[in-house]
Amino acid sequence: MTRMGFRVHLIRSVKKFEGLLIWAGLIRLFVAPAGLEAATLAGQQVQGGNSVEIRFPVSKYFQDVAAQGGNPRVETGRAVLTFPPGFDPARRWPILIVTSTTDYHRTSPMDAEWYRPPADAEGWVILASDATIKARQDSTPWRLGMLGAALEAVRKDWPQSAKWPVAFAGMSGGAKRSGVLGAMMAKAGLVNICGFYFSGINDDRLSPAYKTYQPGPDFLNIPIWISGGMEDEIATPSSEGAVQASLQRAGFKRIRIERFMGRHWLKRSEVRLALRWFRQLGGF
How many helices (H) and strands (E) does the chain have? Predict the structure, then answer.
């Protein structure tokens, strides 16, 4: 082969190799590598940027909890979860547990979408639990039983999630109940709480819950964000100020109160700022 012929052959070989590299890159983009499977939870496929509704068995322990006060025994629970873009259960993700008010027959899964845009933007998973049957009384033990069973179901498939940081959030009556649920679950050692988000709250239920369940002195370092509308006639600025003062008297050290122009509703931009604040203080 002449020197000129060798050069032509070399150029053609390089171009052919470059073409193969481009083709291989396209294959990697559109075809999942062998052995890589999509994440699943309770039989449902999970993808970042999407939500799932799961059904799960409720253990006898959580059936007993939920049945307190004459409620029916629940054998199957349900939960709505949302996942931020890029979600991979192999990584560590904070979880926002959403609790609804009892008023207007609302359930926690109904409220999940309210929090989804800020949670997606800040890289948080949302968990909102419920039963598959109606309660005779929508009590705190009923909510606690369903939440405990839901977390149990998540940890069955993703054991690593037991170490993920958790924040509790609620609007109005859901804010009050979030504080009680958080104290109860912290006492039981079921969650690693990194924050409370209380929107439209007019009564401090967290301080009495802390005194009743005594989850430990570190509980007082959990950051608390109180959000309220300036024109809110249900949770007025003065009543929210009273909640803040009550929390301070109980010994809570990280309390932030923010107000916006509006009434008794959830301000998504404030949710996002609160989730970012919890991350900054928690270092995760």
Answer: 8, 10
